[in-house]
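Reminder to self: tokens first, then the designed residues, so the page reads top to bottom the way the pipeline ran.
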């Protein structure tokens, strides 16, 4: 209990007193489904959390479900393949059961004062392996742990109800949760026991990342940037359609990321005749440097919790426009509300909005300064 309370005090940005740090160094097991090097915001969050906890004097060990034995992984793969043959519902449930099982195997034999789990199923795996004597703190990165799956899997009403009942059971043994937005915390309360303790700690990013890029911005060009997995919920197709309604030849769109929609998005760009003003940059290690090059970051995702990329862009000095989805509004402070756009916006209106901002340098500069000031006071790695 003391370890858990100390970790929450530190994570809330209050810091641990020097005497407490010298008296109690925690051994923290940082558990997730995202191995180092994976291209996700959760992995970046883990990197930052690991660094900050280490700087506070704690010993951090990073573990994923893949740290179990090869035999366990092979069994899990075959179970997932078999379940996929049984229908849509089992196709969604079995991988999560296997995450829990593999995480339990990965945690066996390890010791810790605290488990900081980044997913409910790996948290259950840690509890299975280590018992109730080790406190488990679960960080919830999804906007809604059930509705996201229901929408993505296109469940029927009955399937959605069954999945919700099954998922609710997964929360029952655990009591301590961290959500990265107020929006996510509100959704989580629908699924966890009433006695659960939920703390909101917004994502934080380093102020100085030291990144550089070899990519050059063409002279006289203005750059619109978007970072994210190329998939339907990230909605990059809207940005490409908007480019077709921006008549200026001095505006380019840079898409950073990869995913299943890449081919379709390239075909859409060719169909609309904007291929020459569009760059697919793929997965990059210099995203913060690209943000410093860009004139405007535009986030068009349709479902979000608290996207790490928005404070990254703001702290990099890039002005941000975003659809008002989920917890996105929590990234925007006073005086910047006009940069929040309705989720129902069409390509023509979005194009006019982007063109309006790019055509008003002083207005864009003011937005950039307001957003950077707000983010630097709330969304730094040290604060997180």
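Designed residues (384 positions):
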């Amino acid at each position: 209990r003391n370890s858990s309370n100390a970790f929450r005090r530190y994570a809330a940005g209050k810091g641990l007193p020097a005497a407490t740090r010298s008296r109690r160094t925690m051994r923290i097991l940082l558990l997730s489904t995202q191995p180092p090097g994976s291209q996700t915001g959760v992995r970046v969050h883990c990197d930052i959390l690991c660094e900050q906890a280490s700087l506070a004097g704690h010993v951090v060990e990073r573990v994923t479900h893949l740290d179990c034995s090869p035999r366990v992984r092979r069994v899990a793969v075959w179970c997932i393949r078999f379940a996929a043959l049984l229908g849509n519902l089992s196709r969604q449930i079995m991988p999560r059961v296997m995450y829990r099982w593999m995480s339990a195997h990965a945690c066996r034999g390890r010791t810790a004062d605290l488990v900081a789990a980044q997913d409910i199923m790996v948290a259950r795996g840690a509890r299975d392996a280590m018992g109730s004597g080790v406190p488990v703190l679960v960080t919830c990165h999804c906007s809604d742990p059930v509705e996201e799956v229901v929408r993505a899997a296109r469940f029927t009403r009955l399937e959605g109800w069954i999945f919700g009942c099954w998922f609710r059971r997964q929360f029952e043994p655990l009591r301590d949760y961290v959500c990265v937005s107020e929006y996510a915390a509100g959704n989580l309360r629908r699924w966890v026991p009433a006695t659960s303790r939920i703390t909101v700690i917004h994502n934080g990013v380093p102020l100085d990342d030291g990144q550089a890029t070899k990519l050059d911005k063409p002279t006289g060009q203005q750059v619109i940037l978007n970072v994210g997995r190329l998939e339907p919920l990230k909605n990059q197709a809207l940005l490409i359609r908007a480019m077709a309604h921006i008549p200026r030849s001095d505006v380019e769109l840079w898409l950073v990321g990869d995913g299943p929609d890449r081919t379709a998005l390239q075909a859409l760009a060719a169909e609309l005749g904007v291929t020459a003003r569009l760059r697919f940059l793929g997965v990059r290690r210099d995203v913060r440097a690209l943000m410093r090059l860009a004139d405007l970051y535009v986030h068009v995702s349709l479902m979000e919790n608290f996207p790490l990329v928005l404070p990254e862009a703001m702290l990099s000095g890039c002005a941000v426009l975003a659809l008002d989805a989920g917890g996105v509004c929590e990234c925007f402070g006073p005086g910047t509300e006009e940069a929040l756009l309705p989720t129902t916006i069409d390509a023509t209106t979005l194009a006019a909005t982007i063109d309006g901002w790019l055509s008003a340098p002083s207005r864009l500069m003011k937005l950039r300064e307001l957003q950077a000031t707000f983010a630097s006071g709330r969304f730094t790695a040290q604060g997180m």
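Residues 6-23 have pLDDT under 50 and may be disordered.
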